[in-house]
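Journal club prep, notes for RB
We'll compare a predicted complex against what the paper describes. Inputs for the adenine case:
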Amino acid sequence: MNFHVMTLFPDMVKNGLMTSIIGRAVENNYISINTYDIRDYTTDKHRKVDDYPYGGGAGMLMQAQPVFDCAKAVKERIGHDARVIFMTPQGRTFNQRIAEELAGEEDLIFLCGHYEGIDERVLEEIVTDEISIGDYVLTGGEMAAMIVIDAVSRLVPGVLSNEDSGVIESFSGNLLEYPQYSRPEVWMGKGVPEVLLSGNHKEIEKWRLETAKERTARKRPDLYAKYERECEIIKYLNAEKAINSDMTEAIRLNRLRVIYDSNGAVALVDTAKTKVLLYAKDVAGIGEFYDFAKENGLDKVPVLLRGTNPGPLLEQGFKLSGEYKEVAYTRGVPIGTKEVVDDVTGNIRNEINDLLLTGELPIKLVPVNEAETLSVYEKLQFRISKKSLYFCEPLC
Ligand code: ADE
């Protein structure tokens, strides 16, 4: 992932980011941080980049020309178009969901303002996103851009030395992080909780979960309420575990957002709203969700339905474009080499063992018309769902 920062103070950005974890991530080429001095792009012979605002008023404005030419040079260097994020208190307020969305980009360009602002015409021309880091006004966008870069970087695979920690830490789930301790065992007369010295990993996990829950309930009751609600939803979905593991896993790893839950249905959606995962207990559940979808502009989004047959969706102008079975490897221990008899079983073994290693559920969706593949999973003793999952796409 490459960050490109357009600023009048490139040293501030470089110095601020090139230490600790982010500095190491740059050295190891997981990310790059490129700064561009807007002043280098001015055509003014005195290297001036600011001027008085038309109509009067306090302070100076950054002029359009150097900002525009700087953005042009950045895009030429990247070789393709990229999002240009203007850091401003007028933007949408930054949060973990936005960080996750941005982490999916290959290149991000940041524009940091200074003085009293930037000529509106160049903003209209180049900016794709406006982000604020909170309801207060800074002297410039640099520190705000650094905060966004930090939060996005730690989601890039490899940046955190333990890949899991990005998932486990506060916010990615709805629980805040549990307390952590390092050597010495006693510091200023304070010891380390006994359980952490016990070597009993099950007990340690239990303690960490409990302290995270206690902390979240105390410090962030709003997050805790969300966490409790998601626990309830997971329990509800687990009643039909064989078809819903992908949904519970998406909630557990905070990959999808719960947009609807009632007694009859639960729906999850991705940030870009490209797909809805819908569990409906019966056809009435589909009806309930579909009313909600229409009211919320989601009725033209493809649906991966499970729980009941897709009839009502087809009546609403969807077409059935795939029927799947969920296959799950439930044995916990890695698949051994003796199970590998050809390329297909070899690939399945690699995929499943990789998932086990990262702590993700070893589940997959297999099209029902791929009977041979399904029989391979059966031979490998995977649990195969009796019910199907239906991929329904809007006709228009
Ligand atoms: N520039 C000045 N204030 C800012 C803020 N709160 N967020 C983002 N950029 C800014």
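Talking point for the session: The longest strand covers residues 83-93.
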